[in-house]
């Protein structure tokens, strides 16, 4: 076993966490994905934003450019595998390579017990949150192999995947499956130098959680009461964890599902 190999990250540290990298981000029109697009660009990456809503993508892209970053976008429906691969291919066509990817895009469904979940809702959350993540990972691995050669992928899971989830059972099940895909991919592609990790956010002040709080007043306060830090995260706090895992500073981290939850899982 070679115990002398190290990774020199001093240059990257000086230039930015993701300096010189090309990053692909799903669900980038709002929430955690939009925060990631802004952050990754500030940290030196050229970013390709993907989501379903062009107006949101355009707004975030223009914001990144106005701040001096390099960004473009592709309209992408995670439930459509061909659309996902086309968005990844567009990244390579624009920037010549793919180094890192953040599979953040997801959909939710109304809260309630398992027997009240409609089959159509279950199918939709499966198509986007699980099959869409699988399709994105497959396309990203192909693109990294063909261009950068080595790289990193981070999947956005949920603290709700780490135990029983009676409030969002289908959502939790799909995110737990994403954790399994993450671990399997890490084992499969690690020998090629492609790292794959996931983050498991706790309560985060995104449009999705605000809508849930509107339909179930007080739910954020209830969640915060079970969170040792006693507050919800800002989307950028979640994006920071993804950025680190994608960066060379996490060069020996793969196959992990990292809770970013204010201590909720430990409580």
Short structural description:
The chain is α/β, with parallel strands linked by helices.
Looking at CATH, the homologous superfamily is NAD(P)-binding Rossmann-like Domain
Treating each run of at least 4 consecutive H or I residues as one helix, how many helices? 9
- Low-confidence stretches are 1-13
Distance between the termini: 39 Å
The coarse overall form would be globular
Element-by-element helix/strand order: HEHEHEHEHEHEHHHE
Mean pLDDT: 93
Task: Please report which band the strand proportion falls in: under 5%, 5-15%, 15-25%, 25-35%, 35-45% or over 45%.
Answer: 5-15%
Structural class based on helices, strands and sheet pairing: alpha/beta
Share of helix among residues?
A: 40-55%
List the helices and strands and how they pair.
Blueprint: H1 10-15, E1 22-26, H2 31-42, E2 46-51, H3 54-66, E3 70-75, H4 81-95, E4 100-103, H5 119-146, E5 151-156, H6 169-189, E6 194-201, H7 207-215, H8 219-225, H9 235-246, E7 257-260
Parallel strand pairs: 1-2, 1-4, 2-3, 4-5, 5-6, 6-7
Helix pairs in contact: 2-3, 2-9, 4-5, 5-6
């Amino acid at each position: 076993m070679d115990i002398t190999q190290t990774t020199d990250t001093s240059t990257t540290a000086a230039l930015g966490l993701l300096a010189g990298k090309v990053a692909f981000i799903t669900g980038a029109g709002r929430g955690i994905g939009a925060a990631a697009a802004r952050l990754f660009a500030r940290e030196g990456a050229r970013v390709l934003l993907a989501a379903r809503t062009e107006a949101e993508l355009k707004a975030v892209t223009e914001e990144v450019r106005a701040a001096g970053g390099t960004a473009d976008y592709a309209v992408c429906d995670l439930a459509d595998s061909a659309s996902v691969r086309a968005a990844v291919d567009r990244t390579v066509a624009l920037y010549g390579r793919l180094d890192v990817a953040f599979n953040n895009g997801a959909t939710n469904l109304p809260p309630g017990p398992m027997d009240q979940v409609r089959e159509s809702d279950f199918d939709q959350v499966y198509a986007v949150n699980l099959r869409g993540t699988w399709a994105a990972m497959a396309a990203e691995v192909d693109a990294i192999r063909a261009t950068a050669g080595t790289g990193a992928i981070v999947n956005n899971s949920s603290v709700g995947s780490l135990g029983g989830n009676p409030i969002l059972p289908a959502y939790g099940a799909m995110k737990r499956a994403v954790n399994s895909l993450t671990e399997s991919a890490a084992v499969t592609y690690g020998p090629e130098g492609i790292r794959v990790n996931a983050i498991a956010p706790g309560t985060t002040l995104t449009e999705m959680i605000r809508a849930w709080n509107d339909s179930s007043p007080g739910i954020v306060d209830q969640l915060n009461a079970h969170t040792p830090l006693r507050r919800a995260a800002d989307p950028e706090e979640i994006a920071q964890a993804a950025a680190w895992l994608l960066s060379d500073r996490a060069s020996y981290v793969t196959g992990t599902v990292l809770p970013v939850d204010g201590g909720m899982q430990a409580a």
